[in-house]
Specification:
One of its GO terms (biological process) is citrulline metabolic process. The chain is of the alpha/beta class and 287 residues long. 23% of the residues lie in helices and 20% in strands.
């Protein structure tokens, strides 16, 4: 789905001004097929164990996301799913790989702890030496790279003390941002990286101090409304031009189209039942 498919909605109100030209770059991702996906426990506000999950549809939707990346020319590597780890499909939480440094997740909940070993094994198989933090970090769920800076969330999952460990391991500056709304329990549910200098975010998800930092660092950031935030519309993956996002985040799609980005909507309604969407399913290997 592209911006043309949003016609008649908010996209119809896009300003006539010429948008800025955007240049995509080829990316490298890791993903895990949702073979064992289900909602058998609740560790975030989106999860409801009484809501049935269509496992076949979940795989089919995930395959559409995979196909979208490959159509755009990106490299996608597979991480083998493990029985008994239903959330492994949310590959972004598996760790952080940037400039050759690989940091394995240390999960807050025991239900997901086993995923760390699986992603560490994948890192090793690709020639990375997996590093571990002493404190909880949930990978790219809370550690988002913007240019040469890491934006790091805390408040619900990742321990703020892990931010210093990440800074030491990567050699990159880390900006700590406090999340205050449990619906936005990971940074990647409340903030989207669009390119090396452009972000979008949902202000109510952040503390006053975090909002002030974001306004200072990104004065031209896109502020997203509740309708899009509540469908995890900020849980996106961008190559600098093409922004793959939840199909029903139509208002956000219109906002970024006005800036010259090309939104590509993907329906991940089944995986949304576990509290994740596009970015959650995608671990980027930053070079």
């Amino acid at each position: 789905m592209t911006i043309a498919d949003f016609a008649g909605g908010p996209a119809a109100d896009i300003a006539a001004a010429t948008p800025r030209a955007r240049t995509p770059s080829l990316r490298r991702y890791a993903m895990t097929v949702p073979t064992f996906f289900t909602v058998e426990y609740a560790i975030n506000p989106w999860m409801d164990t009484s809501t049935p999950v269509d496992a076949t549809l979940a795989v089919r939707q995930w395959e559409q996301l995979l196909s979208t990346y490959r159509t755009l020319g990106h490299t996608v590597e597979m991480v083998e799913p493990v029985a008994g780890l239903p959330d492994m499909v949310y590959a972004a939480n598996g760790g952080l790989v940037v400039d050759g440094t690989a940091i394995v997740a240390r999960f807050a909940y025991p239900q997901r702890a086993g995923e760390a070993a699986a992603y560490a094994e994948w890192m090793s198989s690709r020639g990375f030496e997996p590093h571990h933090t002493h404190h909880v970090n949930e990978g790219q769920g809370d550690l988002l790279v913007v240019g040469s800076t890491i934006l790091a969330g805390y408040g619900f999952r990742t321990d703020r003390r892990a931010h210093a460990e990440v800074a030491e391991l990567t050699g990159l500056p880390v900006v700590s941002l406090e999340l205050v709304d449990p619906r936005f329990y990971h940074l990647d549910t409340a903030l989207a990286v669009l390119d090396d200098t452009t972000i979008a975010y949902y202000p109510p998800a952040f503390s006053d101090d975090a909002r002030a930092q974001l306004q200072r660092l990104f004065p031209d950031a896109v502020e997203v409304g509740s309708a899009d935030a509540y469908v995890l519309g900020l849980n996106v993956v961008s190559d600098g031009k093409h922004v793959v996002l939840p199909a029903n985040a139509t208002g956000f799609a219109a906002q970024i189209a006005e800036l010259g980005f090309e939104p590509i909507g993907v329906d991940l309604s089944e995986l949304f039942k576990g509290g994740g969407s596009v970015k959650c399913c995608t671990l980027e290997v930053y070079s």
